[in-house]
Amino acid sequence: MADSPRVAMVAGETSGDLLAGLLIDGMQAHWPGLQSSGIGGPQMARRGFAAWWPSEKLAVHGYSMEVLRRLRELLGIRKQLRERLLKDRPDVFIGVDAPDFNLGLEADLRAAGIKTVHFVCPSIWAWRADRVEKIRRSADHVLCIFPFEPELLARHGIAATYVGHPLAGVIPMVPDRAAARAQLGLSDDDEVLAILPGSRSSEIQYIAQPFFEAAALVLKARPAIKLVVPAVPALRERIEQAAQASGLGGAVQIVGGQSHTVLAACDATLIASGTATLEAALFKRPMVIGYHMHPLSWWLMRRKQLQPWVGLPNILCREFVVPELIQDAATPQALCAATLDWLDARGQQPQKIAALEQRFTALHESLLRNTPQLAADAIQKILAPAA
Prior knowledge:
Blueprint: E1 6-11, H1 13-30, E2 35-40, H2 42-45, E3 50-54, H3 65-88, E4 92-96, H4 99-111, E5 115-119, H5 132-138, E6 141-144, H6 149-154, E7 160-162, H7 166-170, H8 177-184, E8 192-196, H9 201-221, E9 226-231, H10 236-245, E10 252-256, H11 259-265, E11 268-272, H12 275-282, E12 287-291, H13 295-304, H14 312-317, E13 324-326, H15 332-348, H16 350-367, H17 371-383
Parallel strand pairs: 1-2, 1-4, 2-3, 4-5, 5-6, 6-7, 8-9, 8-11, 9-10, 11-12, 12-13
Helix pairs in contact: 1-17, 3-4, 4-5, 8-11, 9-10, 9-15, 15-16
């Protein structure tokens, strides 16, 4: 086993696929003969991962009908996966994010004597304090991407290691704006607004329309501005429809994926709350964070909210360094006004932009570690007793 461990993994959504791909890099450096399989996406497949189901199957969000409609399918997948893993018994199971799917699976596997690791501590410090006991039952070890998390978990008797945030190593400290613009066919003189309405179907359903209506208002105020949208391939058609319904038509440049290129190229971004907001911060870009979900989902989330911020840049900086417009506040008019504030500041208040860039640079430095190696080292220690 020590020469070639068999690793089972489950990563949900685009962000989990990216994190898992980087983790596989680290493990392959330790174990060139690594075998990995389970649920994953294209980043993992590129590294030799055998996907039994695609990660997009787990891309659901919220508490209401959008999840309930898929619940039977998700439970069926988890049951089949559990049976397969209990039969084949990998050396370690690594659940990458997707806690609603992974923690229950990890608990069953751990009870059967299979080592379990959870990569990305659930946001017990923001939304889900009720998950602490579930994590303790489920994970032999938690790999944390924020520096304050291991101490918090230790208070509850949960072993954890801070491995830095993988994105901090992927995104350059000083992004190459000119190269990104050239790649997208934009000029250095263009004013560019990036629009990121999310990577989940439910996000496109609730967020895309107000975002594009806001962008149409921005375009009226600044007719020369370039609007660029990176779209997950599976959602591109729906994004195009939302843009057209907002009257933007051909005024929006929609590109397949390339969210990092778009963020590097932009002057500001209108962006859905989630991992993408941290990516925007690491690119040192001004942003307006917006979010909208099913009313029942929002009511349940509000009851669990432990702090005033929703966006990761604000949570990590412990203050509202960028505006957040959530649920009823996320009107096209309010989103437009907040976006125009950032665009105006580039010419009228350059010190405001410089201060934000300095804040985000400090945040980037605090998250920058050799994540693949640190994560693989932690996994090696977990496997060592069985070696």
